[in-house]
Amino acid sequence: ALRDERFKLIDAPRPELYDLARDPGETRNLYDDEPRTAQALRAELTRLTAGASGAMNVRPVDKETVEKLEALGYLGAGADPASAEGSDQGRDPKDLIATFNRLRRAAEAVRTRRFALAMPILEAIIAEEPRNAFAHMLLGSTHLGTRQYARAIQELRAYVALAPTSAQAHQWMAIAHANLGDRTSALREAGAALAIDPHLSDARVLRAGILSALGRRAEAVQELRAAVATDPEKPPLRMSLAEVLSDAGLPAESEAEYRAILRQEPAFAPALAGLGAVLLRRGALQEASDAFRRALEVDPRQDEARFNLAQVLERQGRPQEARAEYERLARDSDTPTPVRDAARMRLRASSR
């Protein structure tokens, strides 16, 4: 829209022109009655906007990203997004208000996890407008939330066809594939997300978890180091790296990561418990005990830390104190089953 000191032009498929001096309520469309005024305002609007339609444009994919996506099996990744035919172009903005309001209602329902409310709204919009990218994205998110992973992938693929530069959509597809047990596809989709946005640390964490489970720990470490380099102030990333380093038989590097976390957050209980476990394995019993006790002060529900503290006490020749910790774990119904079973086993062994 454009207005001057008197007239207002709305440049839409059904254009409108109002004389604001005489008709401030915009009740009478003068577009056909004042063609010269309308054309002058339209020419000025074109000059100001350089002829842009105002439609949201999809960011082009650069050559390096195209090559990465093609290497992952996305042939034609650099092609232009599907044509806008059948999209909002050519529709009067006033006719889009109802759809916009439905999408807004569906988005709020998805945000508050009211998926049963969102789903029929989104399915109806897609039936009317198969190329509505936002509706496909929201419906994919809805299916993720209801654990309908195959359907989520279907909707997210439709969204990516319309918005090929969405790293988050590839990441969501990776999550869906991982939940379906398809590790190969999950790795590929997380890789596609990173090809578009190398700073998406969640995709690196997902890849690292899968690679570690496959025994490819060196690659998992590489992914997590890159994630930490991207978000060095995020303790959970360093936690994941420290755990994988420990599993990979690199205790010194694992300890260094735990200590880096604790320099940032001295009371981060999982890091205290992890550090204690590394210290216990290398025989630094008193340091390990201190770390476990501090973790339990911060969070008494650190049950693995309590079990490990009991092991330290046994090795320090303090069997009664160790037994008290094992008994606490064995009788507490909230103790995770593997920890409770291990505690009961230690109690039986100490009673022989």
How is the topology of this model organized?
Layout lengths: L1 E2 L3 E4 L5 E4 L15 H15 L13 H9 L25 H15 L3 H14 L4 H13 L3 H14 L4 H13 L3 H14 L4 H13 L3 H14 L4 H13 L3 H14 L4 H13 L3 H14 L4 H13 L3 H13 L5 H15 L1
Antiparallel strand pairs: 1-2, 2-3
Helix pairs in contact: 2-8, 3-4, 3-5, 4-5, 5-6, 6-7, 7-8, 7-9, 8-9, 9-10, 10-11, 11-12, 11-13, 12-13, 13-14, 13-15, 14-15, 15-16, 16-17
Which spans of ≥5 residues are poorly predicted at pLDDT below 50?
A: 48-58, 74-86
Average residue-wise pLDDT: 85
> How would you sum up the global shape?
elongated
**Major beta sheet, strand line-up:** 1-2-3
Percent of residues in helical segments? 55-70%
Termini separation: 88 Å
N to C succession of SSEs: EEEHHHHHHHHHHHHHHHHH
Give a structural overview.
By secondary structure, this protein is mainly α. Among the domains are: 2-49, no CATH class; 267-352, Serine Threonine Protein Phosphatase 5, Tetratricopeptide repeat. It is 65% helix and 3% strand. It is built from 17 helices and three strands. Strands 1-2-3 form a three-stranded antiparallel beta sheet, covered by helices on one side. The longest helix is centred in the first third of the chain and has 15 residues, at 35-49. The chain starts with a strand and ends with a helix.
Short description:
This protein is mainly α and 352 residues long.
